[in-house]
Input
Amino acid sequence: MTGFVGTNLAARLVAMGAKVRGVSRRRPLGPAHAGVEHLRADLTDAEDCRRAIEGMDFVFMCAASTSGAAVITSTPLAHVTPNVVMNAQMLDAAHAAGVEKLLFVSSCAAYPATDHPAAEDEMFAGDPPDVYFAAAWMKRYAELLCATYATRLRQPMPTVVVRPSNAYGPHDKFEFETSHVTAALIRRVVERHRPIEVWGTGDDVRDLIYIDDLVDGMIAAFEHDAPHLVVNLASGRARSVREILAALLDVDDYRDADVRYDASKPRTVPARLVDTSYAKRELGFEARTELPEGLRRTVRWYRENAAKTEAHR
Output
């Protein structure tokens, strides 16, 4: 619950009046976790999973071992084993404890490559792209486990699977070794790097969703009454890395930036877009935060909370 999505979700749940228990292995809770009960635990340990869930009615499984393009490219199995173990044991512990519903955060990166925005029923239409192959199948396996617990047991446990696009916002990871493209660009712009070095050609296309919108979608999906729900959560808008950086330079007034693209550096896939029509139709969900406003809020948060820390790492 000390990660990017978990931190923002926990704050929202507390604001809604929920009793929230957050779990972390190493990182302490910060000011953003006000009102959250903290449990230090290792979710690869079955007993710790049972302790984490004890007395809880609902589970939001946001914990994951994640990283950026460099790690995914160089060590594709780096996150597979811990995530498989965590996901399987948390589902098992939740079911054994009689939890009323569990939400699992999957990923749009697990979709096969398509030339159109991928709809929910296309997840298993083919293999995922090579660069995501191991991590994507890890997510797919967890999705299958969620479906199994919800639909194939004598005592089923309702589950929700959300597939976010590229989320960004406050509390993201800004370390260059582990950050995703938007957070890395924000840090380079705020620190006024000269030149600003960007991995790849800048033509890769992504769908960015601001974290507040993602949390809105997660809550809407969780409140749906289906015994098993799978839904994409995205803005529904395609943005190239060049467009993202141009918007960022504009909102932070970095007018004379020297931008250099390095096509020799690791990249993932040229385009990754998902269909958002099911979320709109079934949940009434649409992302509301426009990119410039989301970037402006994130830059402001980074300057006020993380910039000095990152600069001295």
The mean pLDDT is 92. The chain has one domain: 4-311.
